[in-house]
């Protein structure tokens, strides 16, 4: 009988240790719940990351390299029935990143041939699309909302060999 009591005490101590260990993992020293670190998680909209930390360069034709690799980043601003960039140029094989910022109304940015599109976003919002420019030629990017494309909200992506 004495062995049974010792066995039950050992089980109780192991169980208490397990509960204390779990409690310490889920609580900070001040007793508050610790949330998972989300500093490296990007919001995703239709397969595209949202970037909140980019500057918009207002030029008519853009081709800019963001680092020493083959990634090219373009900051495109949309307003009522126009984009600030009418043409962007890249090389075939480049990793293209477009940060689309909307300043008025609701707009999106679509490139059919590369099967990429931002979600429709409202003024003050941003969305990012990434893709590999694996086809050469000239392709139209446009806003797919209503008749915005017909009203001039479009540009050209030129992919050179």
From TrEMBL:
Q: Which UniProt keywords apply?
A: Copper, Metal-binding
Q: What ranges does the record give for the region Disordered, renumbered to this chain?
A: 28-70
Keyword field contains Iron: no
UniProt cross-references to InterPro entries, sorted A to Z: Cu-binding_ET (IPR050845), Cu_oxidase_CS (IPR033138), Cupredoxin (IPR008972), EfeO_Cupredoxin (IPR028096)
Q: Where are the transmembrane segments?
A: none
The annotated regions of Polar residues compositional bias extend over 28-39, 61-70
Q: Which PROSITE patterns match?
A: MULTICOPPER_OXIDASE1
Composition-biased stretches, type Low complexity, lie in 40-53
A GO molecular-function descriptor: metal ion binding
Q: Where is the EfeO-type cupredoxin-like domain?
A: 63-159
Q: Where is the signal peptide?
A: none
Q: Name one Pfam family in it.
A: Cupredoxin_1
User: What is the official name of this protein in its record?
Assistant: EfeO-type cupredoxin-like domain-containing protein
Q: What is the lineage of its organism?
A: Bacteria, Candidatus Gottesmaniibacteriota
């Amino acid at each position: 009988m004495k062995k049974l009591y010792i066995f039950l005490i050992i089980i109780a101590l192991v169980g208490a240790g397990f509960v204390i260990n779990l409690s310490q993992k889920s609580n900070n020293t001040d007793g508050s719940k610790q949330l998972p670190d989300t500093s490296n998680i990007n919001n995703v909209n239709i397969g595209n990351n949202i970037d909140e930390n980019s500057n918009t360069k207002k030029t008519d034709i853009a081709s800019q390299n963001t680092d020493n690799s083959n990634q090219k980043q373009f900051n495109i601003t949309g307003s009522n029935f126009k984009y600030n960039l009418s043409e962007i140029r890249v090389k075939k094989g480049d990793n293209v990143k477009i940060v689309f910022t909307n300043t008025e109304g609701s707009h999106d940015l679509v490139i059919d041939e590369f099967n990429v599109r931002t979600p429709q976003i409202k003024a003050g919002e941003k969305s990012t699309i990434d893709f590999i420019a694996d086809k050469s030629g000239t392709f139209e990017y446009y806003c797919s909302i209503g008749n915005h494309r017909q009203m001039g909200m479009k540009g050209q992506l030129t992919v050179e060999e």
